Amino acid sequence: MKILDLDLGDRSYPIIIGTNHYANAEILRKYIMGKRVAIVSNETVAPIYLEKLATSLESYDPVSIILPDGEEYKSLNTIDSVIDQLLAARCDRKITMIALGGGVIGDMTGFAAACYMRGVPFIQIPTSLLSQVDSSVGGKTGVNHKRGKNMIGAFYQPKCVLIDTSTLDTLPSKELSAGLAEVIKYGLIRDKNFLFWLEENMVRLLARDPAALSHAIFESCRHKSEVVADDELERGGRALLNLGHTFGHAIEAGMGYGNWLHGEAVAAGMVMAAELSCRLGWLPRADVVRVEKIISMAKLPIRAPASLSVAVMREHMAVDKKVTDGKLQLVLFKAIGDVILTDDFSEKFLDDVLADLRN
Fold first, then answer.
1. Which segments of 71-201 are extended strands (E)?
2. Is 238 a residue of the active site?
């Protein structure tokens, strides 16, 4: 077992990484604040993991809330359903909510916890690679709006993040690859040595080698923790974690939530960021090829869908959360391992990249 501490003063919490411990009551009881728990999961994850977790916490009279599976259900209507079920079960403000699932479940459970009775504690038990290395860490919670991804939400930190690598055994290969997009991101934005390690070990990761996955998860969480500790509310450096995300969110929204996985869209978005950086004269062509190669190695797309027009992409990018004073800001490369948030780019170059990088 490895433990990382995310230092946020009185909101600090541990990220506990290990195997076969997601239902370890001895670990969880340290972070359960009251006498009851509510476990929120979905129709895919619950049949595999919920019973064991609920049984281990039977002394807490667990309430089980099972939601439909998919990004298209990440909405205020679903949050209303969660709160309705909490009220029906007469959960008071001492309830501890537990998110058991991937990023969608984690984001919605955290947002529901932030809202319910003006805030109740919650615990993250992420079961997908993407949620283990990214969305479960850092306190971003929320739901989508039809005009943009994650437009409604709150910064609300969990009491702990319990990562069990054994849950990846049941993860579909497509979703494993989607998680690797976020892992690759850390190498691209701030750690060239980690990127080199990923290039050397991608086959092991795709084969679900336990040691390789554990190392990749630990390093990703370490990077995320360091960034969040310095900028919890994304007023500065934390925005750099959004490499590829402005492009990716536009792909997700433009195609309709659920048609592309988040990690797939971000992967194509990171290539777009690299290509635009190259056309601006900031990044050598050889490095764009390197970005494309490692993303392809992870079995991820390097182009947006041809059916998605530039106009639709720009419409969704115009309401991105990083738009400031009406100006779109993008995370772009100065070099591999060195990125910046900037509005200093040619609109024509951006449109050209959006038009050219589709298939």
1. 96-101, 122-126, 140-145, 148-155, 161-164
2. yes
Its domain, for residue 349, covers 173-356
Burial class (CB in 10 A: 0-12, 13-18, 19+), 58: exposed
Low-confidence ranges of the chain (pLDDT < 70): none
Cα-Cα-Cα-Cα dihedral sign, residues 310, 315, 319, 325: positive
Out of 36, 149, 175, 182, pick the active-site residue.
182
Q: Annotated catalytic, 234?
A: yes
Same domain, yes or no: 12 and 152: yes
Which domain CATH number covers 86? 3.40.50.1970
Listed residues 170, 188, 217: the one ending a domain: 170
pLDDT at 354: 98
Q: Is 245 a catalytic residue?
A: yes
Determine whether 224 is an active site residue: yes
Q: Between 103-115 and 76-88, two packed helices, what is the crossing angle to 10 degrees?
A: 60
> Could you read off the pLDDT of 128-158 as tens digits, one per residue?
999 999 999 999 999 999 888 999 999 999 9
Annotation marks residue 249 as catalytic: yes
Residue of 234, 252, 275, 292 marked catalytic: 234
Active site residue 215: no
Q: How many domains does the structure of the chain reveal?
A: 2
Same domain membership, residue 215 and residue 108: no
Exactly one of 21, 36, 74, 140 is catalytic; which is it? 140
> For position 172, what pLDDT does the model report?
97
Using an 8 Å Cβ cutoff, are 99 and 70 in contact? no
- Whether 133 and 244 share a structural domain: no
Among residues 342, 351, 356, the alpha carbon closest in space to that of 282 is found at 342
